[in-house]
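@channel anyone free to eyeball this complex?
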Amino acid sequence: MTTSLLPDYLRWASRGLRANPFTNIVNLLALSLGMAGFVLAAAAALFLRGTDTTLPNASRIYAVTQQPLDKTSGFSIGVIPMTSDPVAAYLAAEAPEIEAVTRIRPTFDRGVMVEGGAHFLQCLFVDRSFLKVFRLTLKEGEAGRALERPRSALLSAAAARRLFGDRPALGRTLTIGGQDVTVTGVVAPPAPPSIFDFPPHRFDILLSDDVGLLLSPPLPEPNAWGSIGGSTFFLLGAGQSVTSIDARLATFGDRHVHLPSGTMQFGRLPLGQFLEGLLNSQIRTDRTGLSMSALLVAMGGLVLVVASLNYANLAAAQALSRLRESGMRIVLGATRTGIITQHLVESGLMAGASLAITLILLALAAVPLYRWTGLDLSSLLLLRPGFWEALIPGALAAAVIGGLYPAFQLSGAQAVAAARGGRTRPGLSRVTFLFVCIQFLAASFLLILVTVMVRQMTSLRDFASPGEGDGLVVVNTPLDGLPFTLADLRAVLHGETGVLSVSAIDVEPWSEDTRSSSLFPTPDLSGAHANSFPCSVAEDFFGTIGARFLAGRDFAAERGGDVTDNAGDGGPAAAVIDRSLAEAMGWTPTEAVGRIVYRKVQGVPTPSRIVGVIEDRPQNFLGMGSQGYVYSLSPKAANHALVRLGGAGGGPALATVDRALSRLAPGIPVQRHLSLDMFAAGAGPLDFALSSFAVLAGAAIGISILGLSGMMLHTIGRRTQEIGIRKILGAGSGHIVGLLLWDLSRPVLIASVLSWPPAYLAGQAYLRLFTQHSDLGGGPFLLSLAFMLLVAWVAIGWRFLAVARLNTAEILRYE
Amino acid sequence: MMKADVMIELSHIEKTYRTEDLETKALADLSFSIGAGEFVAIMGPSGCGKSTLLNILGMIDRPDGGHYIFAGQEVGALPERRLVEFRKRNIGFIFQSFNLIGDLSVEENVELPLLYQGVKRSERRIRVREALELVGLEGRARHRPAQLSGGQQQRVAVARAVVGEPRLILADEPTGNLDSRNGEDVMEMLETLNEHGTTIIMVTHSPAHGARAGRIVNLLDGRIVPEFAAESLSGLS
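replying in thread with the prediction:
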């Protein structure tokens, strides 16, 4: 019988929805926001787990992962979907199940001379197998032969257009690092999402590996195992099982990596999961078990649950006015199942309408979202058949979750009470209160996390400039590939207006680096230790980056022993550490100065003497488990020049630096960036996570406020008589407003406080990813509480004011 | 054994309402029977248990004790689902406050019992039209309850009560919210229905309306006080 009533249920439901336009619009918006939040989170997860799925043989392409492990301490920087250089050759030689193995070596933006002009292009060194594994479409050239010839270069379509306009690029000569290469192909943009759209595989030029051997020779073994800077992909043979590769990779490290201090574990990731693998290595999925896609879906799910609870709440509040109707229906023969079904049909209609609004919202957001984050919703969601199959049940689930509670409330309507004609007792207040609390708990949790993330990013951004309004220029082109030395640069810039100091560092600031080194307080390498991020720097480094000394002294080149490059001549090399590392070693800055610390080099304890301790000044995002920085003076290793510019003369001083570089390297393109720009570019993955969480938090807060608004309007409706009586008894408008504001604030306060413990744990876990991080403190918690209260008051308080100001007769007339 | 023409037999019916600190006995050891085709008025002062009795008779409330036999079927122990089935096929309701559903039109309100009985759409239309003709509201079928006067709303309620062709109509103060003219119209309708064989049980405060029933059950503090013949009561009024 229930089925035969479906058209009537639909009719009644659509009429019911029209009968309460305000509440239903609030409900629609909140549900749509929740669904949009969930869909965006799912899209982001699909984005991370769905790279290059349209490439031929994509299901047979895997990335090799590598995990360095310290034999003594068990310390690991995690599972990284990047490898050391020798992996590809060994794998190709020993695995007949594999059809092709390719090694990709990212390199820095290189200056490319073309037809007399200089351009900076992102280069990847790839071997001949690259196009066998990745069957990219070529707009020009032959895929089978494009990388066969020595000195081959494949341009991306965008780079070809930039260099040659509409003219054919094939056969043209480019000069890179003094080496001539010939364009043998132009690669069409791969279908998004693609690993070739994101670092470290984004490219303007793919250079054949023979060029790579000349421009950036790989390290020989065993040192090569200490560097994980490239990636290895393999194409599994058709019909072959990947389990045999797994077995090989499980013992790969034992068979090929022979290091005295550590070992390597190897694994594999499907090509589609490469991007997520990179992010997972940063959030240490190997330790936490939480993957980025799971986090995103969980957060999106949380927002959807918030929206569903909001719907349940408002629908339950609406149900108050329909209890008598339901009671009457029961008197007239409706079963309780029928009442539940009727209400669920209403929820289903609401979900359908919300789904339509969600799709409109997503369509409107698609273009800005693509520009902002690179997420292409159309390719990720709309064109995937699975999208609809997932979204529609998801929307229905939201409707069922949201509609069940009011449906059960209505089905419990008392026929007797309806017959009596009196009001039926709602009995909703506690559950309603609980629902509102859960919504705000989720919103507060997300808001605190976002606040923690923003604070951390802000504090890191502060480190990207030397302070006092000064700027820091990073010369990206390594000094060892240029015809001048750091001393030459210093000499040319000496005395120039606006140039404050010149130094150098071995790794470009704000680039991802996976180095970590254990630091021991004694020569016993099995004892307690701290994990440090080692940096080789040139003289004047600390002044150049704006680091303040807490104890001890700066490096001094005139003290021969300070220079690591001369180590062995006169005792331990000098080292400067930062405050965090000193604390990790159990020392105050003053206590740390003069102590000998040991690093494990080739399995042997190698001493350094701490000569100074600086305030934390990280030059990298994530520490990969490091607890602080250890600096050594090594001008030979410090390959990237740094120039500190005075704030007042920033623009002209930058021009001075450019002129100096042109003078020192005539005809050679030298790339330089401001450190702040490098920070912005390198912050991509963290910004992605931050943006995702911010969007979800915004949605959760918006929904919660909408829900609270709806609830409070219902409350006002129910309490008008009480308000009237209070006013008759002498209560002023202020008292009434205070009373209602307290009602409004209670769930916000309780939910916020309840959200603090989980938010504290999550915030701590997030901050632990960074070598140096801001203190969690109470700021984010109080800020979140104040923000929630303020928004709630502003959103709803005006209504209270209006009610409190109504005259008593007017108020009682409502009843 | 129950007589063949007895529709309702109540024996030793008890009903108590409880709150945290108060217990109110609404019905105490109530026993009586009603024959098929009877028109019975239940009368008594406020709080004597009239509406409680009507709710129990209408199977929308259960007694705490005793037996309720309807047309030979013990209904007190029926599970909820069967009780609903039993009720919707046998009983029509008319309330003092009409209890029409505001979102539905007049014809949709009248149609409801048929919908829940699973009557086909084509038949529903015919029966709704007939019911509205019976109460003289065929021209108001598309109106909403709020667009009607109180008397018209109660006629809609009568139409809704009769549309399912129930054997019993329970009317709880059906004229309580109406003026005398509209009240008279409703009483005439009930009398007509009764003449056509429908059993009517009516709760009323009005001795005049009670006098038009064939029998009066007089309640006081949840118990029946000696029955009066309608004729004798009409003398009192």
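from a first look: The first helix of chain A runs from residue 6 to 19.
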